[in-house]
Amino acid sequence: MTDTEKLQKLLEVADESDRMELQIMQKAIETTRSAYQSAATASNKKDWDVAREGLQDASDRLWSRYMVQEERLDNRKAVLEYLNENGYSISQGKLYGHAKKGLLRLQPDKSVLMSSVEAYINNPDSGLIKHAETGQTEEDQAKVSRKLDLELSLLKTKAERQRFDFDKEKGRYLPREEFELELASRAAVLETGFKHRFKTRVGEWIQLCGGDQGKRTLLLDAMLKELDVQLNDFATSERYQVMFIADESADETTEEEAE
After folding, report:
1. What global pTM score does this model have?
2. How far apart are CA 204 and CA 74, in angstroms?
3. 241: which strand partners?
4. Which of 65, 94, 64, 62 is closest to 80 using CA atoms?
5. Which domain holds residue 153?
6. Residues 20 and 91 in one domain
7. How many Cα atoms within 13 Å fall on the side-chain side of residue 168?
8. What does the alpha-carbon distance between residue 176 and residue 182 come to, in Å, rounded to a whole number?
9. Most confident by average pLDDT, 3-12, 63-72, 172-181
10. Burial classification of residue 7, based on how many CB atoms lie within 10 Å of its CB (0-12 exposed, 13-18 middle, 19 or more buried)
11. Among residues 24, 31, 112, 205, which is most buried (max CB within 10 A)?
């Protein structure tokens, strides 16, 4: 029987005073729910929860008064024993925690109605349905969970490796050796370029200065201009041919390309 059905039955049999109490609490739920829907603040949520808990407590109390006495268990420990005897594996700490969170509804005297026990068993958040269907203990479930976590981690690692291999095939990554060789190639190009420019244009620069030390600024400006040109060339994606000699005694040389 749902909470709504229980409330409807109580409204049909309760006296005027108790019926008014239930109706006032119903109205409080509607008002606080509307307020929370309009402004989802923590304060409005708390007011809504308090209103619902108040109606639930009143319904449980009046149900015992007006309706046929429902079978109940004395306390949480009795619930734990009942569950274990019926094939549901759960620890005392976990059950007590669920009771504190409201998953297992307690009566004001700490007893538990059998309808609340059944609702708890059928609540997916309790984890009891899965235990009952599989016949696994809580420890077994923990092992399965750890195994699934490990498998998920391995799958993520595999996916990352495949993604990396794909990016490498697309040229988005260079092996460290190739990267270092690329840097060495570019450095060699840069050095050779400077030496070549200075050697081939030094006469022009001396003539530009006319041998006059007072024109040293002109010479410096000319050299810096050539430096800028060479650095711009170095920063482009133009391709260069670079020859590396591994050993003076080696008969073979290796030709590398640098971008």
Report:
1. 0.32
2. 107
3. 257
4. 94
5. 145-173
6. no
7. 11
8. 10
9. 3-12
10. buried
11. 112
Residue 140 lies in a domain: no
What pLDDT was estimated at residue 88?
83
Q: Which amino acid is at 88?
A: Y
Of 84, 112, 135, the one marking the end of a domain is 135
Residues 116 and 63 in one domain: no
Domain count, the chain: 4
Residue-wise pLDDT tens digits, 194-242: 778 777 777 777 777 777 766 767 777 777 787 777 767 765 655 555 5
Q: Count other C-beta atoms under 10 Å from residue 101's C-beta.
A: 9
Three-class secondary structure of residue 251 per DSSP: coil
Element (H, E) at 255: strand 254-258
For residues 161 and 26, which has the higher predicted lDDT (pLDDT)?
A: 26
Residue 10 within any structural domain of the chain: yes
Q: Return the residue matching tokens 């050299």.
A: 223
Instruction: Say whether 242 sits in a helix, a strand or coil.
Output: strand
Q: Is-contact 64 112, C-beta < 8 A?
A: no
- Looking at the fold, whether 182 and 254 belong to one and the same domain comes out as yes
Residues 59 and 81 in one domain: no
Q: How many residues in total does the chain contain?
A: 259
Tokens coding 253: 């040389």
Handedness of CA 101, 103, 104, 106 (dihedral sign): positive
